[in-house]
Every structure is written in structure tokens, then in C-alpha cells.
């Protein structure tokens, strides 16, 4: 069955649908933006990409839908766990999508989701934001108090 026909069947009557605030969202697996749209649907396409947090809370799991095992759902997904630093993780994800000829339209959405997951896994440090804001405010006040004479002379 074609993906368009499958989409026409499940687009308004799926168990994953959530209709809230005039928007329609979807909680299906491998839907990168959680939108109920044909482009981001993780059920109807032959090739999908999913990004999930790792079970141990460090890194991400990339879920790729294989084209070969469509009749065997247990073996139709390939899971790759990456728990490097954030730059290496995003580079690996970009490389996997590009080299395996997966969908180019999902690359940026997958990178953004992986980046959000990695940022959520960082420990929260208390007080640093307040100190950095006070430091920046103090620097700004010092600059406003005394005009820079070299910039005035260079103008004339």
C-alpha cells in the first residue's frame, strides 16, 4: 500500500492524535516534530529517522527504519546509541543520515531534536547565570561612565 493511501486512512483517526489549542499533534514513534503531517509521520514512510534519549540518560539513540524488514516489525528498526560529546554526536547523526541516503528533509529536524535532548541532559548549575548577568551589567556601566577618548579623536 502506498504511503499516501496510508496517510489518508490514518490522518484523522489515529490513536496517536492529540488535538489541543487548535493544533493537531501526534505522539507516534519516529515523528521528529510531533506534528500530525505527512512529512513528519513515522508510520507511513518506508524510511524514517527517530531520535530518542538514551536509557541511561547520557547520549541519544538514533532509530532508523529499514526498508527490508517491513513485514517483520521486530526487525524493521535499527537502533544506534551515540554517547559522545554534543558536537561529535551531531556530526555522527549528520553523517549517518547523509551516507545511508535517508531523507534529506528530516536532517535538520533530527539535528534539532538531538541538540535539545543533549541540552536537557546537561546538569543544572545554580547561580552562574546570575553572576554572569551581574558581571555583564557591571562592564556595561563602566563603559557608559567614561567615554573612550581614542574613538573621539579617531573620528576627527
Give a description of the structure.
Helix 2 (86-99) runs antiparallel to helix 3 (107-120). The protein has five helices and five strands; from the N terminus they run αβββββαααα. The chain has 156 residues and is of the alpha+beta class. The strands form two sheets. Strands 3-4-5 form a three-stranded antiparallel β-sheet. A hairpin with a 6-residue loop joins strand 3 (49-53) and strand 4. The chain has two domains: 1-45, Enolase-like, domain 1 (2-Layer Sandwich), CATH 3.30.390.110; 46-121, Enolase-like, domain 1, CATH 3.30.390.110. The longest helix has 18 residues, at 128-145. It has helices at 3-10, 86-99, 107-120, 128-145, 149-155, and strands at 17-20, 23-26, 49-53, 60-65, 77-82.
CATH secondary-structure class of the largest domain:
Alpha Beta
Strand order of the largest sheet: 3-4-5
The CATH architecture designation of the largest domain is 2-Layer Sandwich
> What is the string of SSEs from the N terminus onward?
HEEEEEHHHH
Keywords summarizing the entry:
156 residues, alpha+beta, Enolase-like, domain 1, 3-stranded antiparallel beta sheet, two-stranded antiparallel sheet, 5 helices, 5 strands
Amino acid at each position: 500500500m502506498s504511503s499516501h493511501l496510508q496517510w489518508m486512512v490514518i490522518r484523522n483517526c489515529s490513536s496517536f492524535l492529540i488535538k489541543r489549542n487548535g493544533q493537531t499533534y501526534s505522539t507516534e514513534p519516529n515523528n521528529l516534530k510531533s506534528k500530525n503531517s505527512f512529512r513528519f509521520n513515522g508510520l507511513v514512510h518506508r524510511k524514517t529517522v527517530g531520535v530518542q534519549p538514551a536509557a541511561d540518560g547520557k547520549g541519544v539513540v538514533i532509530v532508523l527504519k529499514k526498508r527490508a524488514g517491513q513485514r517483520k516489525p521486530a526487525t524493521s528498526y535499527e537502533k544506534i546509541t551515540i554517547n559522545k560529546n554534543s558536537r561529535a554526536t551531531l556530526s555522527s547523526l549528520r553523517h549517518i543520515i547523509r551516507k545511508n541516503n535517508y531523507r534529506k528533509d528530516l536532517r535538520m529536524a533530527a539535528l534539532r531534536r538531538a541538540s535539545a535532548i543533549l541540552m536537557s541532559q546537561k546538569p543544572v548549575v545554580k547561580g552562574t547565570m546570575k553572576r554572569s548577568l551581574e558581571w555583564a551589567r557591571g562592564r556595561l556601566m563602566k563603559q557608559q561612565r567614561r567615554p573612550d577618548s581614542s574613538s573621539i579623536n579617531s573620528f576627527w
